[in-house]
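in:
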């Protein structure tokens, strides 16, 4: 095991790495500088096996936790709690914003309907004036009602 760790990088146990290192303009890439990050699957079980081996060889004390590890675990628990709290607050904020946006979309749809009703009332009144007659009381009342409704919707939308 020590021979593999101490051996120089030029004597790579993988033949294609050794051939790639010897080729080119002298700028060899080491396995550490490759684009793919180093990851070990099942790291927790690997750490447990290493710990067991070190305990068996007497290189590691058998006390389960030291002060630093206990403090790290305490801070990790605090971070998890803060993260959960922040996630809940963010979710509530997003939901509140979504409800507000849905309300605005509903008001915009109502404003479009009110706009078409105002335009229709305007056309009726202008049609009556082109025929050289005065608009009826019903037409005038309807036009005022539609205008007031549109104004109230726009006020709600601006608020």
């Amino acid at each position: 095991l020590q021979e593999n760790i101490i051996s120089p990088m030029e004597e790579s146990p993988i033949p294609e790495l050794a051939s790639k290192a010897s080729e080119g303009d002298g700028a060899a890439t080491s396995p550490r500088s490759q684009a793919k990050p180093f990851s070990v699957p099942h790291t927790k079980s690997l750490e447990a096996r290493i710990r067991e081996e070190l305990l068996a060889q007497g290189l590691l004390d058998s006390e389960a936790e030291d002060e630093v590890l206990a403090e790290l675990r305490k801070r990790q628990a605090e971070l998890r709690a803060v993260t959960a709290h922040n996630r809940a607050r963010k979710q509530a904020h997003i939901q509140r914003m979504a409800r507000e946006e849905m309300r605005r979309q509903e008001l915009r749809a109502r404003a479009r309907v009110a706009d078409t009703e105002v335009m229709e009332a305007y056309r009726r009144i202008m049609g009556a004036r082109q025929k050289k007659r005065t608009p009826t009381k019903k037409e005038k009342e309807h036009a005022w009602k539609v205008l007031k409704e549109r104004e109230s919707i726009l006020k709600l939308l601006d608020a």
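note: The mean pLDDT is 80.
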